Amino acid sequence: MEMNHFNQNWESEGPALRVKWHEKADALFPELQHKSVQADSLLELIDDPVAWQGVRAVRTEEASGLSLREWKKGDSLFLDFGEHHVGYFTFSMHLADGCCGSPAALRVLAAELPFELAYKAENFRGGLSQAWIQEEFIKIDVLPGSIRLPRRYACRYLRIDVIATPGALIFDQIEFDTVSTANYLPPAPEYLSALEKEIYTTGCRTLRDCMQTCFEDGPKRDRRLWLGDLYLEAKVNAVTYRNFRLVERCIYLLAANCSENGMLPACAFEHSGMRTRCFIPDYSLLFPALLLEHGKAFGNREIMEEFYPLAVHQANLFQDFLQEDCTLRNTGSYWFFVDHDAKLEKETSEFCIYLFALRNLAELAHLLNREDDKAEFLGNYSHWRGIVRREAMDPDTGILLSGKDRQISEASQIWGVLSGVLDAGEGRRALAEMKKLPDVIRSRNPYQLHYLLEAYCVCGQEEKAYDLIRDYWGGMIRLGADTFWEVFDPDGIAPVLYGDPCLVSACHAWSCTPCLFLQKKGSAPEIC
Q1: 58 near 47, Cβ under 8 Å?
Q2: Of 86, 273, 359, 526, whose CB count within 10 A is highest?
Q3: CA angle 312, 316, 320 (to 5 degrees)
């Protein structure tokens, strides 16, 4: 399908293309690697105002003696598996006196962080479904016996409450059958400092546990493929695990879930019967960069050719939002994301992300010998870049402003740099000037802070990028993280997304990107 026919033909050919792309995704279904992990130690919970979220897990004894302990009604068992994993639990149990007069009833709670081990359903205040909490109530009718829980869990810790039992219960073995398409950790580069090595390993573990049958955003919640996360996961994968077939499966899955007008979804389900209703235009604009970087890293020109028209289509669709005064025309049917902060004025960032897409499309067109297309993209780029500089740039400070209130945000400067609206010198000045001003909207999550790392590199300030890695991601390490969290405030305030802290993912794909910079430390401009 030629690019200039894509819009016209999508309505008639789209359904067939979606079926074809889903078939190609199915053909790339990966084999999961399994590894059996045993508990490392038994724990108790301690309230500690200094600990992250106010709860600390304290080791009480080695788990090797678990089979010598008896558990009765009202007892609670806390286990630490040593590090975060994703997988399935099997419990093998028997009764001390060998007499089974009734079922045993257990409550099982899997947790990524110690705070979650104290979860009580009556305290839940979440805006998302309570079903995301990794809590199960099970009954075992035959003892001695074994039971494998059918649901997959993402956790480091496990709590078992004995609700009822016909006698003293003994756990012979609790096995964690962990799964990933990359069930190992790449060694950290030797030239890194001790802290940087720990950050690198933690980032690799985060990505490992998100590498399931697709690249998930978070294996606890919400266990699906998101385009924004995939773009960052693919960049890290290219310098660590190099599982390019999994990236391509994800590209086909996203394409198979396009909307009726051909917009790529913000997220996609693996099962063809489950459709998404979530479309984020700034995520769809990352598709050209994803396609370009994957094609170059894997050396696969064919996939760039196949999806070039769809990549162009994302930019064409976004043009409907653009207005000459650097504001967006939005019907209210789309969610513009950029960052979590509800106060963030996103218009300037969105214009810059569109320009970022045009630059990537121009490079794609050049690689595919479509020089006329390249010239058209660069012409559009020049036009809209001029509008952003005229309408959004403060003439005195060089800072990019956004919205009717002329808001100053970190996001506007970051995307101004990455899009080329600000050159390297202007970017350095804008990022520095912004930090001197009060009431600046700062980035709140590792997703946006990844792009700040890239902006520093583009501006020739690599050491600022490494300082940020050591401070921000190192701050999670210092608080006990062994996978990187969905959101983190280094000032010590535990952010609450979705209304309840138990819903926040403690292993989240968009947080793994320090590996990208640390892997190539000393040559950071090459990765930006």
Answers
A1: no
A2: 86
A3: 165
